[in-house]
Amino acid sequence: MEDHKLQVFCAVIEHESFSRAAEAKFLTQSAISHLIKGLEKDLGTPLLYRHTRAVKPTRAGAVFYRHAKKILSDYKRLTEDIHELLHQVKGPLHIGSDAITAVYLLPQLIYQFKLLYNEVIIQVSIKNPEKMVQDLNNAEIDFAVTLETLPEKYCFEEELIKDEIVLIGPENHPLAGRAQVLPGELSRYPFVLAASSIERPGFADTFFHNIGIDPKSLNVVMMTDSQNLAIKMVKYGIGLSVVSKWAVFREVREGAVIILNASQENILRKFKMIRLDKIPITAAARIFLEFTKNYSFFVPF
């Protein structure tokens, strides 16, 4: 049974673009165009038209899209029911994630899951919160497994484990060995910060406000979009930084980087799994969900 044409057509509608649909389906734009023309020829009517810069369905295209989504959903359920009847768990599992979660949390989880369900093919994509929301709504990912707060209400959110935001410095920093660092002292020292930390409340911005510091008062000598690079810069003495404790555990364990205590309380955020209840869950996703609920994570600190 072939559902490829229906999937491609739905992708064009959902992305409102031939080029974005081609990127999502790993096809060329000309291949997408040829496929749509073939469908229109078979049905004897135009299915799409260009409205300003976006691709929109005609009335026939809207009807075709509605039925295509139902057919795809029924086909997915059919194959899952057959696999379950045969006591098999197989098929694709698509996960959207932020970089920290993907690098530090998912490997141990996926490794243990694959030991039990080797025929499930897992795809992990690194995405920003807006793209995770879009892909969840378009059923292009089964779950978002992330530290991020997604800008939408979801009917299912499962906490996996907590992360802590910490202040770090090089091993030979003047503040090393202090039981408590006074917040006012931090403005004397240079900082290396990830750009996304300052742009998104809930990360470094929340950390500094929690200890009573305006982030704009800091001497930020370097900005980067990579926490790993920020950690390396701290290791080489370029400045202090605020990062995920999961991301820095190896350097702390090796003694190259130290955690400085500048806060009266731990500043925590959650690794969580998020999905939409309006999207039918696949058999592989359902098994992964149950596995994750009962999984005991190895915490490296």
Structure characteristics:
D-Maltodextrin-Binding Protein, domain 2; alpha/beta; 11 strands; single chain; seven-stranded mixed sheet; Arc Repressor Mutant, subunit A; 3 domains; 301 residues; two-stranded antiparallel ribbon; 43% helix
Query: Strand count, sense and closure of the main sheet?
Result: 7 strands, mixed
From the 3D coordinates, which CATH architecture of the largest domain would you assign? 3-Layer(aba) Sandwich
- The Rg value, from CA coordinates, equals 24 Å
- How would you describe the shape? elongated
The arrangement of helices and strands along the chain is: HHHEEHEHHEHEEEHHEHEHEEH
Strand segment tally: 11
Determine the CATH topology of the largest domain: D-Maltodextrin-Binding Protein, domain 2
User: What's the tally of helices?
Assistant: 12
CATH superfamily of the largest domain: Periplasmic binding protein-like II
What is the count of structural domains?
Answer: 3
Poorly predicted regions: 197-202
The average pLDDT is: 85
Percent helix among the residues?
40-55%
CATH class of the largest domain: Alpha Beta
Distance between the termini: 50 Å
Structural class: alpha/beta
